[in-house]
Amino acid sequence: MRISYLWLKELTGLEWSAEEMAERLTLCGIANEEVTSTAKYLDKVVVGEVLEVHPVEGASRIRRTIVDVGREKLQVICGAPNVAVGQKVPVAQVGAKVAGEVEIKAAKIRGVDSAGMICAEDELGISSDHAGIMVLDPSAPVGAALKDHLEYDDYILGFELTPNRGDAWSAIGIARDLAALGGVTVKRPEIKLRESLEKTSIVIKVTSDDLIGCPRYAGRVIRNIKVGPSPWWIKKKLLTAGIRPISNVVDITNLVMLECGNPLHAFDLEQFGSNEVVVRRAIQGEKFTTLDGLERTLTSQVLMITNGKHGVAVAGIMGGLHSEVTEKTTTLLLEAAYFSPIVIRRGRKELGMVTESSARFERGVDPNNIQYAIDRAAALFQDICGGEVLGGTVDCYPQKIESKQIALRPDRCRAIMGTDLPAARMKAILEGLEFQVTGEATLAVTVPTFRSDISTEIDLIEEVARIHGWGNIADAVENVGPLYSPANAEDIYENELRRILNGIGFDEVLGHGLADGRLAEMMNPGLPQVKISNPVSDDLSIMRNSLLPSALGIASHNVSHRITDLRLFELGRAYFPPCSGRDWTEEERLSLLVTGNSPANWRDKARPVDFYDLKAAVETLALHYHLPTFEYVPTSVAYLEREISFTIHADGQPLGIVGKLTDQLAKKFDIRQDVYAAELYLPVMMRLSRALGKFSPLPIYPAAPRDLAIVIDQSIKVGEMLDRIKNVAGPLAESITVFDVYAGKQIEQGKKSIGVAIVYRSPERSLSSDEIDAAQQAIMKTLRDEFRADIREK
Amino acid sequence: MSILDEVSHIEQDAIKRISEADSLDLLRELQVQFLGRKGSLTAVLKSLGGLSPNERKAVGARANQVRELIEQKIEEATSRLSSAKSSSSFDPTLPGTGQYLGVTHIVTQTMNDICGIFERMGFQIARGPHVETEHYNFEALNFAPDHPARDEHDTFFVEGGRLLRTHTTPVQAREMEKRKNDLPIKLIMPGRTFRHEDISTRAHVSFHQVDGFLVDEGITIADLKGCLNAFTHAYFGEGLKLRFRPSYFPFTEPSAEVDVACYLCRGKGCQLCKQSGWLEILGCGMIHPNVLEMAGIDSEKYTGYAFGVGVERPAMLKHGINDIRLFFNNNLRFLRQFN
Q: Domain limits at B249?
C-alpha cells in the first residue's frame, strides 16, 4: 500500500522526516519498501501558457508551439493531440529530468528548434496517464515552479503489509501505529453535516438476506450532486496512493477508503432500478456485467448487492456497469457495508480478481466505523459536489459486532519477551494503539473492532513487543535447551557418502524432484506415481519415482553445453503413493551416472568409460561400508540394455539397479554417447553397512605368489571361475586377483585369456613348494574339467 | 702488516670474490686459491711455526675460523649457482597426474554450513516427508482454511489428498507431536520445499530451507535473538548488525523478520542490498501457543522459539549468484566453481 507522507503528518502532528517515519514504521511491523519524492521529476518544470500552435511541415503528428514561461517565450515542439492556445501547461525546461531519467535538452526536431517539453502526467511522475499533456488550472501563475503551484512536495511511502494487518490499510490505520510510537493521538478530520429534512429511510430500504456474508449494510442518499473533477487536494492524496482520479464522486469514495479503510460504493440512484437494496448470494450461473465492462458468470460463492430484482454490484469487489456514476448523475445512493472476509475472499477467487475494495474487506475492515465513513463521505459530497444529504442513515445491522475483552498478564508478557517491562508501559502501549485497558495485576483489555486480528493474550503480547521494539529487548548471551543432541545417523552417512564419491571424482548434482509422468511411465511402466493435480507444466507432472530421469536430464543439460565427460551422483528421494498396503513413501536413494571419457592427463590417455568404471565406484562404497558380497543378477528393465542390466543383490536383498541405458532413451535426452547408471537404495545400504571389524594379526610367514594364464570361452563369466578357484584353493589363498583380460591375436577366436594372480600364505607356517604346487594342480584340474580351460602356469 | 691483519685481509678478499663469482668453475678456482695446498690461508697456517706459543694459539684459532667461513660461503655459492643453472632434465612444473576431486553441490554445502552452526549450538537434525498432509503443512501450524496467509504459499496439490510441503515447518509440527513427552526439543530441519510458481531467475518450483525450533521452560524472545545473532555472525561474519522487524507468520507470535546489515557495504547501501543497507535473511518468532497446544504441549508451562532461513538466498548473496535456476540446472561449470 502507498500513502502520502504529508497526510500521515497531518493526522499525527509528528515532525518526523519521511525517512524517519518509514524506518520507525518498519521496526514496528509496517514494512516500508519505498520512499519516493513526488517532486523527483518536477525540478526545472514551470507553469507555461500556450500562446501559439502551428503545424510543422511534413509532420502531421507534431506541432510547433510558443509557450510563455514568464522570463521568456520558448518555442517547443509538442506531440500531444490536446495542446491548444490559452492552456496553462507544465513545461520542462532545458536541464530538467523527467520520468525515465530523461534529461531535457535543446533539440532540433524535423528541422525546428525545440527548447523544452510540455509534459504529460506520467512524464512528471504524477500518474501513469499519457493520454495527453497535463492541463493546469487557468489561474496557475505563468513562470511559477510547478512544484510550488501544485504544492506537491511530498513523499510517497510504500508499505508491504502482512496479511493480518487489515487495520493498517489506510492513512488513519498507519497513523495509529505512528501515534503509539510517538506518544500522540490521531487527529481525525472533523465532519460537519447539514442533513435535509427529507429522510433517507423514506427513499430507500436496505435488507441483508445473508447476515453471514453481510452483517452490516448502511446507506445514505445525496441529492443535487454536480459531477466534475475533484479539487487538487483530493487528487494529490489519490495520486500518491497510486489511484487515478476519475471524478469528484468516485474520488471521494476512494479518498474515504484510503483515509479510514472502509471501502464505499456510490450508485446512481436514478439508474438503480428500485428503492430497496437486498444483499444476497448470487444464483449459480447468474450473469452480471461489472463496471469494467466484462460480463461475468457467478456462482453461489459470490455475494451480490441487488435492487430486489437483479444484481447491481458484486458485494465488496466491484460495482455494476449499469448503476455506475456518470457525468449525468444527480442523486447518489452511498453504500458503506461490512462484508465477511471469508466470503469476499472466496468470491474474488471465484472471479479471479483483486480490487482495492476486496483487498481491504478480505483482511477485515472495522464494522463499527461505518457510520463515520459514510458521514465523512456524505460531508465531502455536500462540501465539494454541492450535494444535499438526506436525513439519517439506513442501517441494517441486526447483530452488533462487539469488542473483545482479553486479559493480559504482565508476567506472561515478560516471560515471552524476556524483559522486565513494567505493566504500566504495557498499558501505555496498548492505550496508544486505542485499546482500552483497566486493572493492575492483570490488565483487562478491550480490543477495538478494527483489530480483528487480535483475539488472544499472545496477540496482545505481540502488540506490546512490536511497539516496545525488538531492538530494545537485550539478546540472551547463554545457550539454552538440551546440553547435548545426538547426531543424525542418516545425515552423517549421507555426508560421508558425498566425501567418498567426491574423492573418487564424482560431482554431486541435485534434481528438484518433479518429473515428467509420461517419461517416467515409459521408463518404469506400471510403477506407481505421485501425480500433481495442478502442475505448472507437462514435464513437471509427477514427483519422480526414480532418480534416473533427473540424472539423465542433468547429463543432457551438460552434454548440450559441451561438458561431455560426466561422473555424477545424486542423493535424493523417489516418491510413491499408497499402493498394495503401503502408505505414502519417500525412499532415499543414490544415483550414479558415468558417460564420456575417463579422466585423462598428459601421461594417462583418455578412454571411453564403461560398466566397470561405474562398478568400481559401487565397489568403493562396498569396501568402505563393509557391505556383503554383491551379486549382479541379470534383470529386465525397460530403460537398460538387455545385456547390461542388473539388480545388485547383497545378503539376498536387492540393493539397487545398475546397467547401460538404452541408446533410444539416451537419444531422447539428446545424448549420443554411452551412458551407464546405477540407482541404489540407501536404507538397505545403511542397514547392510558394518562398522570396522576386529584386528587380524599381521602375517609373519612369507607369501608365495603364482600367476596363471587361463584361456577360456568368451561366454564364461570370470566371476564364476574365480569363485571356483577360491573354493578349490581354500584358506591357503590369501588373495586372488585378475591382472589381465585379453582377446585377439594369438588367442583362438571366441576365446579370451585371463591372467590370474594367486598369493598363497599360511598364518601358521612357511608353505612348502609341494603344498603350493598341489594347490595349483588342483585349481588347474578343476579349470580344465569344469571350464574347458587351456592353462599356462607362470 | 701483522699476521692477524693478513688473515682479516684474506677473509674480506675471499668473501667479496666468492659473492661475485658467476660460475662453478670460478668457485673451484677460488677454493684452491684460498684453501688449497698452496692457498693463501694455508700459507698463513704453515707460517705459524715461527711464532710464540701464545701468538700461535691466537692466530691459529682465527685462521681456522676464517677457513670455516670461506668453506661455508663457497658451499652457499655453489648451491646458488647450481640451482640457477641446473642441467637436469627433470621438470617439476608439469601438472600432477592425480585424480579429479568431485564437488559437493553448493546447495548441500550451504545447507551443511547452516546446519553445522546450529548443531554446534546443540540442535539436532530432523527430516520429514516432502509430500505432506494439509494438516501438518497448514492446520497444525495455525493456518485456518481461509486464511489470507495461505495466498503466500502457492501450493502444489497431489492426487490422493496430499500436497507438496511449502516450507520445512511441518517437520516442527510432526516432531513436537512425536516428542511432546520428551521435552526439551531442539531441532534443525533442513530440506526441500515446493511452491507453485513459474520458473524464473528469482523463483523456482523447488528450493531449500532450514527451519529450527526449541521448546523448553522459560524460553523467551531474548533467547531467540541471542541464538540468531550467534548464527548470523557465524555465517555472514562478525560485527554485522542485525535488525528484527516485527512481522507475521501464523505459526509464531510474536513474529519477526531478521535483516542483517549488508556485508558488502556494511549498511551503507549498494547494489546487493538494493541501497537499503539490509539483507533479509530469516523469519522467526515465538511458537504460537495454538501450535504448541495442537501438538499436545502445555503452552502455559512451555514456550519455544522457531526460525526459518532459506538456503538458495544466502548462497546467492554470499557468492553473488544472480539466477536461482543455476542451482537446479546443475551445469558443471557452475557447480565446480564451488570446489
A: 106-338
Q: Is residue B96 part of a domain?
A: no
Alpha carbon of A462: minimum distance to chain B alpha carbons (Å) = 5
Mean pLDDT of chain A: 93
Are B54 and B186 found together in one domain?
Answer: no
Give the global pTM. Answer: 0.85
Q: How confident is the model at residue B86 (pLDDT cuts 50, 70, 90)?
A: low
Measured between beta carbons, the chain B residues lying within 8 angstroms of A488 are: 124-127
Judged by CB atoms closer than 8 Å, whether chains meet at B159 and A29 is answered as no
Terminal alpha carbon distance of chain B: 71
> What grid cell was written down for A667?
537419444
| Three-state helix/strand/coil letters over A246-271 | CCHHHHHHHHHHHHHCCCEEEEEHHH
Q: What is the reported pLDDT for B87? A: 64
Q: Cell for B113?
A: 554450513
Q: Which residues of chain A have pLDDT under 50?
A: none
pLDDT mean over B270-289: 89
- Does a structural domain hold residue B97? no
State pLDDT tens for residues A432-449.
Answer: 999 999 998 999 999 999
**271-300 in B: which are within 8 Å (CB) of A?**
286, 288-289
Calculate how close chain A gets to B83, using CA atoms only, in Å: 26
Structural domain includes residue B286: yes
B102–A504 C-beta distance less than 8 A: yes
Contact A482 B247 (CB under 8 A): no
Give per-residue pLDDT as tens, B10-37. 888 888 888 888 888 888 888 888 888 8
* Banded pLDDT at B263 (limits 50, 70, 90): confident
Q: What is the CATH number of the domain that holds B160?
A: 3.30.930.10
Query: Do B30 and B152 share a structural domain?
Result: no
Peptide bond connecting A608 to the previous residue in cis, omega within 30 degrees of 0: no
Q: Percentage of chain A with pLDDT > 70?
A: 100
User: Which of A458, A509, A530 is nearest residue B158 as measured by Cβ atoms?
Assistant: A530
Residue to mutate among A181, A475, A583, A597, with most B CBs inside 10 A, is: A475
Q: What is the pLDDT of residue B162?
A: 96
Q: Which of A340, A512, A529 best probes binding to B when mutated, by most B CB atoms within 10 angstroms? A: A512
Residue B125 near residue A485 (C-beta atoms within 8 A): no
Say whether both B46 and B182 belong to one domain: no
DSSP A463-513: HHHHHH-GGGSPPP-S--S-S--PPPHHHHHHHHHHHHHHHTTPEE----S
Residue B95 domain-assigned? Answer: no
Q: Is A342 within 8 Å of B146 when comparing Cβ atoms?
A: yes
Query: Would you tell me which residues 225-284 of chain A have a C-beta closer than 8 angstroms to some C-beta of chain B?
Result: none
Q: Are residues B278 and B129 in the same domain?
A: yes
